[in-house]
Each structure stands twice: as structure tokens, then as C-alpha cells.
Amino acid sequence: xxxxxxxxxxxxxxxxxxxxxISLSIGLTIPKPALSLPPPEDTPEEILRTEIILEARSPIxxxxxxxxxxxxxxxxxxxxxxxxxxVPEIQHTIFLLRILxxxxxxxxx
Length: 109
Fold this sequence. Notes:
Elements: H1 2-11, H2 16-29, H3 45-50, E1 55-57, E2 64-66, H4 67-79, H5 88-106
């Protein structure tokens, strides 16, 4: 009787659900190379963070500077005793926008 059962199963095609389940489990268990890793010639970020930057751009006009020139400009900007002034009309507009923002947080309009 076991022989007759096996002969019946040999002629019958495999159920698509079972085939999909088996192929999926085999596909997930086979180790694959990591595709999301960077190429080996790429410099790691940890090494890039330790490099000393020798060139810079001016914060004023964006021109390329040496490290010494950049340090001088930064020192001059740090010595400025008063903050840059804002036109009173713009200060008033900013004040009104802040009040409007406060009102919108309180009221659901």
C-alpha cells in the first residue's frame, strides 16, 4: 500500500504554497555577501574625523583661505563687542510673529 501511495504522489505536482515556503526558507538560510557595506577602498569615517583640515573658506565671502588666515578672521569676529544691529521695523515684525505663534498655540484657530 505504501508503494501505491508513493506512485500517486510522484505524478501529482507540488502545491505552489508549499513550493514557495520551501524556496523562501532555503533562500533566507543561505548566507549571502553583505551588499550594503562600503567598498574596501573607501576611507572609514573614524579616520576622516581625526584628519587635520588645512584649508577653509571665509565665513564672510566664501573665498578659500589657509588655516592661519581662517584663525585670524575668526579672532577678529570673536573680538566684536556688540552684536550686529537689526532695523527696528524688523525687530517689531519678529515680535509680532512671536506673539502670533503664542496665540496659535493657545487657541485652536
